[in-house]
Write a sequence for this structure.
C-alpha cells in the first residue's frame, strides 16, 4: 500500500490504483495525509475542500466522504498500520506509518543525504527522493487555499533538493550533469533566481561561459518585464563570478540546501560514545501523540525489554520476541514513545537474529514512524541499520545500501561510534569498498580511545 501526494493524490496497492472518487474526496484525503497521525477537524476539511464559500450542508458532505474513505481503507486493501478513526465529536485521525506516504519517504531520503560524507552517496539518495515525484504536488484536488499553500511548500522543498543535487554533482566535477539537472527546472521556474544563479555557475564551470552570460540577461529581462524588478544578490554574485577572467573559487557559491529543522532538546549520550556534534536533531517521521509521564505500564514495558535481552542471550528468541511485542503494547497504552521505540528496536533485532526478515522490516519501520519530542537519534541509527539488514536479506540491495549508508553517516555526525560500527560492518558484508573499511576502523579506534 502506498499513499501519494507528490503528484496526483492517489492510493496504490501492488496490483492497482484504488478509485478515490471526486476531487473533494481526494482533497479530504490529502488534508488527512498532510497531517497524518494528528487530529484534523471537520472545519479544516471543509476549508481544504471548497475553493469558495462552502454550502450550509458542508459538514454532512464531509462526513459522507470520510465514510467512503473509511470503507475504502478498511475494506482489506489498506493492510496493517492504516486506520481512519474519529476523535471527539468533530475530528478525524488518519493513522499511518511513515514509509507508506511518499512525502515522508522523500523527507527521510533528503535528510539522510544531508548527513553523508561522500557526495556520491548523497547523490544516490537525492536522486531516489526526486524519483518519487510524478507531477505537480497534490494534483487532482480542489484549488483551496490550504492545499494550495501545502503544494507550494512541497514544491519549494523539491526545488531546494534539485539545487542541492546539482551542487553535489559540482563537488564531483560533474558540471555537465549539474547543468542537465538545473536547466529543466530553470525553464519551468524562470523567475526563481537561485535556480538561474546555480545554472549560470554550472554552465560556466562546464566551459560554457557565453551560455551562462546569456542566461543571466534572459533572467534579468524577464524580471524587469514581469515584475519590474532588478536581479537580486544571488543572481548578481553569480554574474560577477562568471565575468572574472580567471576561474574563481566557487566553493562558497552553492545552491541552498533543505533547511534543517529547529534544534531539539539535548540528546542522550549512550555508553561508549565518542565525539559528538551540536547538529540539530533531524526527525524523520510524522508527528504522533505527545509523550505522557511514564506510569506503571511504562515501567512494566521497560522490564519486558530487559527480560527480552536476557531471553535472547539464552537463545530463547521466541520468548524474547513475545516479550518485546508485549512491551510495545504496554508502552502504547502508557503513551510512552521513548519505551515504544526502544521495544521496536529490540524486537527488530531479535527478528533479524531469528531470520524473520519481513517481520524485522515491519518493526523497524514502525519504530521509525514514531517521532520523539526529546529526540533519540542513536535509537534511530539502530532502527535504520536493522531496516537495512532486513532489506538486504530480502534481496532489496540498492535500498538496503542507502539505508545503511544513511545510518553510518548519521551515526558519524552524531558521534555515535557504536552505531557507526554496526552499520559499517553490515555495509562491509555487502560491498568491499575501502572507504567503508577505513571508516569502520576509525570508529573502532575512537571507541577504544573513549574506553
Amino acid at each position: 500500500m502506498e499513499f501519494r501526494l507528490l503528484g496526483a493524490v492517489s492510493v496504490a496497492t501492488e496490483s492497482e490504483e484504488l478509485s478515490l472518487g471526486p476531487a473533494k474526496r481526494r482533497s479530504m484525503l490529502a488534508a488527512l495525509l498532510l497531517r497524518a497521525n494528528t487530529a484534523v477537524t471537520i472545519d479544516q476539511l471543509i476549508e481544504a475542500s471548497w475553493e469558495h464559500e462552502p454550502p450550509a450542508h458542508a459538514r454532512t458532505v464531509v462526513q459522507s466522504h470520510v465514510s467512503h474513505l473509511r470503507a475504502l481503507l478498511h475494506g482489506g486493501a489498506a493492510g496493517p498500520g492504516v486506520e481512519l478513526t474519529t476523535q471527539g465529536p468533530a475530528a478525524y485521525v488518519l493513522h499511518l506509518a511513515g514509509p507508506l506516504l511518499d512525502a515522508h519517504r522523500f523527507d527521510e531520503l533528503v535528510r539522510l543525504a544531508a548527513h553523508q560524507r561522500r557526495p556520491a552517496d548523497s547523490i544516490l539518495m537525492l536522486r531516489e527522493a526526486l524519483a518519487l515525484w510524478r507531477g505537480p504536488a497534490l494534483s487532482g484536488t480542489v484549488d483551496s487555499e490550504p492545499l494550495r499553500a501545502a503544494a507550494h511548500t512541497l514544491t519549494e522543498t523539491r526545488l531546494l533538493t534539485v539545487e542541492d543535487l546539482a551542487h553535489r554533482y559540482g563537488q564531483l566535477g560533474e558540471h555537465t550533469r549539474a547543468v542537465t539537472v538545473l536547466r529543466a527546472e530553470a525553464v519551468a521556474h524562470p523567475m526563481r533566481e537561485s535556480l538561474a544563479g546555480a545554472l549560470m555557475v554550472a554552465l560556466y564551470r562546464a566551459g560554457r561561459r557565453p551560455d551562462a552570460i546569456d542566461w543571466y540577461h534572459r533572467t534579468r529581462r524577464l524580471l524587469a518585464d514581469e515584475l519590474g524588478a532588478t536581479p537580486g544578490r544571488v543572481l548578481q554574485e553569480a554574474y560577477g563570478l562568471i565575468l572574472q577572467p580567471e576561474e574563481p573559487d566557487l566553493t562558497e557559491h552553492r545552491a541552498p540546501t533543505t533547511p534543517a529543522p529547529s534544534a531539539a532538546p539535548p540528546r542522550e549520550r549512550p555508553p561508549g560514545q565518542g565525539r559528538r556534534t551540536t547538529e540539530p536533531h533531524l526527525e524523520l517521521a510524522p508527528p504522533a501523540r505527545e509523550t505522557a509521564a511514564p506510569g506503571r505500564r511504562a515501567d512494566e514495558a521497560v522490564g519486558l525489554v530487559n527480560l527480552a535481552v536476557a531471553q535472547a542471550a539464552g537463545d530463547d528468541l521466541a520468548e524474547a520476541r513475545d516479550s518485546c511485542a508485549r512491551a510495545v503494547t504496554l508502552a502504547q497504552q502508557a503513551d510512552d514513545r521513548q519505551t515504544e521505540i526502544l521495544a521496536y528496536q529490540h524486537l527488530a533485532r531479535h527478528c533479524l537474529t531469528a531470520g524473520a526478515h519481513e517481520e524485522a522490516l515491519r518493526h523497524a519501520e514502525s519504530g521509525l514512524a514514531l517521532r520523539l519530542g526529546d529526540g533519540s537519534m542513536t535509537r534511530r541509527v539502530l532502527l535504520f541499520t536493522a531496516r537495512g539488514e532486513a532489506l538486504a536479506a530480502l534481496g532489496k540491495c540498492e535500498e538496503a545500501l542507502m539505508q545503511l549508508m544513511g545510518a553510518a553517516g548519521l551515526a558519524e555526525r552524531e558521534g555515535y561510534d557504536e552505531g557507526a560500527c554496526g552499520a559499517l560492518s553490515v555495509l562491509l558484508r555487502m560491498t568491499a569498498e575501502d572507504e567503508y573499511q577505513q571508516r569502520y576502523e576509525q570508529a573502532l579506534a575512537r571507541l577504544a580511545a573513549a574506553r
In short: The two ends are 46 Å apart (CA to CA). Confidence is low (pLDDT under 50) at residues 247-294. Residues 145-171 form the longest helix (27 residues). DSSP finds 18 helices and five strands in the chain.
